[in-house]
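Practice problem 4.
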């Protein structure tokens, strides 16, 4: 936050650039498989550390965003949130209250949104199957979610290109890209 306050124009220049790059990205087969899974399962919840909105663009609904969303802005004064304008604004966007806006993402050293975190841990403790997809499994507190699920009896499935610290605790490991594994896993389950 200190870097933002010291030079908000530079921070916003970087975020406008990131939004432009992310805006040209498309959901992959893994994103689409998770969205399809949501339609086929009696109960399905998607918790993500990603801020890019690709899960929503693939069709996932009610996505729990632990680290926020780069496509939203948040006011530093009143806390109001708004969808980011379609075309990037020049300079530092301003809120209707007159305060400066910042990207609605979690920066290093900031707390995760309490509601999203509480809901995620509650769902992890109650689930039957926990898919841990494409993560290093070291960023806390999200890295604890699969362990909470496992402690409460869930089947833990890891999908990741390479082993992680979680790999030895998972019931099933698929060491390959999510875009390759998730469509086949969905097909096998459904």
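Answer key:
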């Amino acid at each position: 936050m200190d870097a933002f306050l010291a030079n908000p124009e530079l921070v916003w220049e970087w975020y406008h650039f990131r939004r432009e790059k992310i805006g040209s990205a498309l959901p992959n087969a893994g994103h689409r498989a998770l969205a399809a899974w949501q339609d086929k399962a009696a109960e399905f919840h998607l918790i993500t550390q990603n801020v890019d909105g690709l899960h929503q663009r693939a069709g996932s609904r009610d996505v729990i965003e632990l680290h926020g969303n780069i496509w939203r802005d948040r006011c530093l004064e009143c806390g109001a949130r708004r969808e980011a304008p379609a075309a990037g604004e020049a300079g530092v966007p301003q809120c209707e209250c007159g305060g400066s806006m910042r990207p609605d993402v979690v920066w290093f050293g900031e707390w995760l949104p309490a509601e999203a975190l509480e809901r995620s841990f509650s769902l992890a403790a109650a689930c039957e199957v926990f898919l841990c997809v494409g993560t290093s499994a070291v960023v806390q507190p999200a890295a604890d979610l699969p362990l909470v699920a496992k402690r409460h009896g869930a089947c833990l499935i890891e999908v990741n290109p390479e082993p992680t610290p979680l790999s030895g605790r998972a019931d099933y490991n698929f060491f390959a890209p999510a875009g390759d594994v998730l469509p086949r896993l969905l097909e096998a389950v459904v």
